[in-house]
C-alpha cells in the first residue's frame, strides 16, 4: 500500500515545502507560471524490508504514516538512502524534530501584540479571561450574566466592554502576525494576530444576534452551516468560527453581516487546525474589533475633551453630516432599535437622529440622543461612531459608514 495522497499533502505542508536537511525550498515557480517540485517524501524506516533502514517491526501502514515520513530535496534523499550508517532511524528522527522546531521559531516568529482596537465587535469571554488569568490579571465580570448574550446585556454591556478594554490595554500578548505566517502543523495552538484584514462573512444569522437567549448550537465543521468569517491566506483559506453569543452590539452585527459580504477587522485568536488536504486553516477568535480610524488620535487630544462650543441646535449640527447617497449604497438599519438614550435615558421615540458611537473619555460605546452625543460623543467616522436617521423602516445609517463601501471583489 503506497503513501496516500493525504499523507503526501500533510508532509509537504508540515515541512513548508523545504528540505529537512539543507532547508532550501523545494517548490519553484518559473517566470511562465509553471510550478516545479524538486522535493521528495522520504521514509525514515524504509517502506520495504529491503529498503534503506527497512529492517523493523513496523507495519506497512505505520511505515507510510506521516510520523515516519519527512520531506527532502532529491539530492539529500539519495544521500540519506545511500548512507545508512550515518543516517540511522534515530538520526533522521532527530533531524525531523530539529527541523520542525526551527521552522516553528524561524519562519514565523511571534511578535508582541497590544490592542489598538477602536471598537470591540466580538469578545470571546471565557477564552480572553483564560488568557488574562494566565498572565495574573483578573477581569471584572461583576456586570456579566452568563445566561445572556453580550448584545442583550444592554447598558451593562458597557461595563463588560470597558473591563476587557482595560485588559487589552494593560496586557501584551505574543502572537504570530497573520501576514508573516508560514503554515505547518507546528503552529496548531499558537496565538495569531491580524491587522486590517479583509474577511468575508458567512452563515451569521440575524435571528441569532437578536435572540435574548444564548446560542446553544455547536460547531460541526461544515462550512456551509457553521457561522464564520474567512480570508485568503496564500493558497489556504483562514476560517475563524464566530459564536453569535460573543458579538457585542447590533452595530457590530452589521459588520459580521454587511451588505457587501465583507468587513475589515483586526484582532487576536488561536490556530486550532491546519488541513493540508482541504487547504483550510481554522482558528478561534479571542477578540475582534475595528482598527483605529484616522480620527482616533484626534479624538484623544486635549482639545477634543472640551464641551462642544457650537451654538447650533443638535439637529442642525448633525444634518450637515448626512450622506443619503452613501446611506442608500450601504442600506444598513440598526436592529433591534433602541428605546432610549443610554446616557440620559430619554426616549428616542420622537428623535430625528440616534448615534451609536464611542463616549468621550470612556472605552465603551452607547446609543445616544443628539444632545448627549454633542456633549459626550467622540465623533462620526468609521471606528468612532455611526449616525442614524429615522425613516419609515427604522434607524438608517447615514454617516460614519465603512469608507471602503460595499465591495464587489471576491476573496
Q: How would you spell out the order of helices and strands? A: HEEEHEHHEEHHEEHEEHEEHHHEEHEE
The whole-number mean of residue pLDDT values reads 83
| Major sheet characteristics | 5 strands, mixed, barrel
Summed up, the helix count is 12
- Binned strand content: 15-25%
Please state how the strands of the largest beta sheet are arranged side by side.
8-9-10-12-11
Instruction: Name the poorly predicted regions.
Output: 297-312, 407-411
The count of strands amounts to: 16
What does this protein look like?
The protein is of the alpha+beta class and 411 residues long. The chain has three domains: 5-106, no CATH class; 111-290, no CATH class; 296-399, no CATH class. The chain contains twelve helices and 16 strands. The protein has helices at 5-14, 60-63, 74-82, 89-106, 125-134, 156-170, 206-210, 250-256, 296-299, 314-319, 324-330, 370-376; strands spanning 27-29, 35-37, 39-43, 69-73, 111-113, 119-123, 173-177, 191-202, 228-233, 236-241, 262-275, 280-290, 353-358, 365-368, 385-391, 394-399. It has a five-stranded mixed barrel. The relative contact order is 0.11. The model is unreliable at 297-312 and 407-411 (pLDDT under 50).
Amino acid at each position: 500500500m503506497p503513501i496516500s495522497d493525504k499523507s503526501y499533502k500533510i508532509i509537504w505542508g508540515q515541512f513548508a515545502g523545504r528540505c529537512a536537511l539543507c532547508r532550501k525550498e523545494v517548490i519553484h515557480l518559473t517566470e511562465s507560471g509553471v510550478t516545479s517540485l524538486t522535493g521528495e517524501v522520504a521514509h525514515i524506516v524504509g517502506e520495504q524490508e529491503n529498503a534503506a533502514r527497512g529492517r523493523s517491526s513496523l507495519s506497512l501502514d505505520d511505515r507510510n504514516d506521516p510520523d515516519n515520513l519527512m520531506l527532502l530535496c532529491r539530492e539529500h534523499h539519495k544521500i540519506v538512502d545511500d548512507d545508512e550508517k550515518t543516517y540511522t532511524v534515530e538520526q533522521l528522527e532527530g533531524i525531523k524534530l530539529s527541523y520542525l522546531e526551527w521552522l516553528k521559531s524561524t519562519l514565523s516568529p511571534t511578535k508582541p501584540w497590544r490592542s489598538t482596537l477602536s471598537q470591540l465587535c466580538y469578545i470571546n469571554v471565557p477564552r480572553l479571561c483564560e488568557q488574562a488569568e494566565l498572565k495574573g490579571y483578573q477581569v471584572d465580570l461583576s456586570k456579566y450574566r452568563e445566561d445572556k448574550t453580550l448584545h442583550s446585556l444592554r447598558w451593562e454591556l458597557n461595563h463588560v466592554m470597558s473591563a476587557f478594554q482595560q485588559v487589552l490595554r494593560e496586557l501584551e500578548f505574543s502572537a504570530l502576525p497573520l501576514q508573516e505566517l508560514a503554515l505547518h502543523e507546528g503552529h496548531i495552538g499558537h496565538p495569531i494576530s491580524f491587522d486590517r484584514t479583509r474577511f468575508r462573512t458567512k452563515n451569521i444569522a440575524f435571528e441569532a444576534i437578536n435572540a435574548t437567549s444564548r446560542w446553544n448550537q455547536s460547531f460541526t465543521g461544515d462550512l456551509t452551516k457553521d457561522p464564520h468569517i474567512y480570508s485568503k491566506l496564500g493558497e489556504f483559506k483562514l476560517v475563524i468560527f464566530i459564536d453569535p453569543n460573543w458579538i457585542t452590539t447590533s452595530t457590530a452585527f452589521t459588520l459580521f453581516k454587511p451588505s457587501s459580504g465583507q468587513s475589515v477587522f483586526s484582532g487576536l485568536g488561536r490556530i486550532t487546525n491546519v488541513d493540508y488536504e482541504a487547504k483550510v486553516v481554522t482558528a478561534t477568535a479571542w477578540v475582534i474589533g475595528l482598527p483605529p480610524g484616522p480620527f482616533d488620535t484626534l479624538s484623544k487630544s486635549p482639545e477634543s475633551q472640551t464641551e462642544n462650543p457650537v451654538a447650533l441646535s443638535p439637529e442642525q449640527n448633525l444634518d450637515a453630516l448626512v450622506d443619503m447617497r452613501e446611506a442608500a449604497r450601504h442600506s444598513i438599519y440598526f436592529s433591534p432599535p433602541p428605546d432610549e438614550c443610554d446616557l440620559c435615558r430619554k426616549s428616542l421615540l420622537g428623535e430625528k437622529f440616534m448615534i451609536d458611537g464611542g463616549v468621550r473619555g470612556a472605552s465603551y460605546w452607547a446609543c445616544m440622543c443628539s444632545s448627549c452625543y454633542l456633549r459626550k460623543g467622540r465623533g462620526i467616522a468609521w471606528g468612532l461612531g455611526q449616525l442614524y436617521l429615522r425613516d419609515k423602516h427604522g434607524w438608517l445609517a447615514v454617516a460614519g459608514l465603512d469608507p471602503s463601501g460595499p465591495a464587489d471583489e471576491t476573496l
